[in-house]
Amino acid sequence: MKFKILVIALLCAIAVKAQENQEVEGKKLWTLEECVRYAEEHNLTIQQAELDLENVKIDKSDAIGNFIPTLNGTLRASGNSGLTIDPTTNDFVNTSIFTASGDITSSITLFDGLRNFHQLNRAKLNAIATQYQADDIKDDIRLGVANAYLQILSNRETLNVLNAQYRSTQQDLERTKELVDNGVLPKGDLLEIEATAANQEQQIVVAENSVLIARISLAQLLQISDYENFDVLDEGYVIPDDAVLNVTPREIYEKALTFRNDIQASQANVDLSKEDLKIAKGARYPSLSAFINYNTRYSDQNRDLVTGELIGFKDQLWIYDGISYGAQINVPILNGFSVENNIKRNKIGVERAKLQLEQDKLQLETDINQAYVDVKGAYKSYEAAGKTVEARRLAFDYAKERYNVGLMNSFDFTQAQARLDDAEATLIQTKYDFIFRLKVLKFYYGIPLEEW
């Protein structure tokens, strides 16, 4: 029973601590995943990409509309004075006359060298290509958000180290002041420690500004203007022993080819260029269209031949209406080489798209190899920085012991502390540099954000 109570109490303590981490001074602390999701919904570049998707949907609707018959109506009314032609009798009359006419025409393309069909296919492919491009933009934004997020944590950890060093210096300052007051150390040693403390205060101010600037940079990526109440949650990033480092760059590249949005978009552009070529070739063939037209007319001078009375408006519309219909074929014979030249241009476009695809693949392979080398190098730098910190800390502890017994002057002591400060700052920078570069490599390997 006591064990159960202890477990429950421990779980409650963990829950309370988690809630405290999520909210500080009334501010909601954002996780990396929350930042990424919010950026996907609010980032301006992504919103522009979404508008491009809406445009291609309209293009697809246009392509579908090419298969549907057109239907248009026209109404005309006019008045004339003097000699003119009565449209209902086609006779010349020398008087004031009012006429009206109307017609409805429908036409349809029966054959155009399959250009409408290929135009529809192109619209579908363009929608796919644009979606890949939008997803590629989202990938870049995700990486940008992750980098900005980690930069905040890196700057904040640097600030924490500086604050801890400043507290330690304050303790040294108090001890040195006592030793100077007791005549054990010269006053110059106190001044040296005070200068060190003042320098650390300046570094803390710079570090606080760096944290603020990093927060503002991330908030701008997310389109958040309330910088004061925006902050991120430190999710306790540690150096992972990741299995992706055991995968060769070639294996990462082969997998990346199957899902990378930039490669898929480049392949879709090749397919698009092929459809453009088919559309251009369709201009070689004759085009066939058909139409049907209904028309009628009215004149205020049109009278009954027997009674001489003006024929009514509705009656004239029925008397003088008519239907016309027909078909038209256009045969391309000589067009100043425009058709053949357009075909040649689109053939070049196909080859250009294929070359761009190969160029994108080469660039992807280069980027992956570079990312792999960067990860390895960053980890070695982190290991070296850790060893340096250990060595500098031992040297500092030894210097502190000597300083406390008067065997080292304050200048040498502060130099030992400065070297330790620099080593700890470098360790923090290399830590987060390695974490981010590892995320980039995982990104190329297709590991979802939730598993970062």
What does this structure look like?
With 452 residues, the chain is α+β, with helices and mostly antiparallel strands. It has two domains: 24-68 and 112-285 and 332-451, Outer membrane efflux proteins (OEP), CATH 1.20.1600.10; 72-111 and 291-331, no CATH class. Helix content is 66%, strand content 14%. It contains ten helices and nine strands. The strands form three sheets. Strands 3-6-8-9 form a four-stranded antiparallel sheet, with helices on one face. Strand 1 (23-24) and strand 2 form a beta hairpin. The radius of gyration is 40 Å and the shape is elongated.
Cα gyration radius (Å): 40 Å
CATH architecture grouping of the largest domain: Up-down Bundle
- Estimate the global geometry from the Cα principal axes: elongated
At CATH level 3, the topology of the largest domain is Outer membrane efflux proteins (OEP)
Tally the helices: what do you get? 10
Question: What's the structural blueprint in terms of helices and strands?
Answer:
Blueprint: H1 2-22, E1 23-24, E2 27-30, H2 32-42, H3 44-65, E3 70-80, E4 83-86, E5 91-94, E6 97-111, H4 115-181, H5 187-221, E7 231-232, H6 249-259, H7 261-282, E8 287-299, H8 313-319, E9 322-330, H9 338-404, H10 410-445
Parallel strand pairs: 2-7
Antiparallel strand pairs: 1-2, 3-6, 4-5, 6-8, 8-9
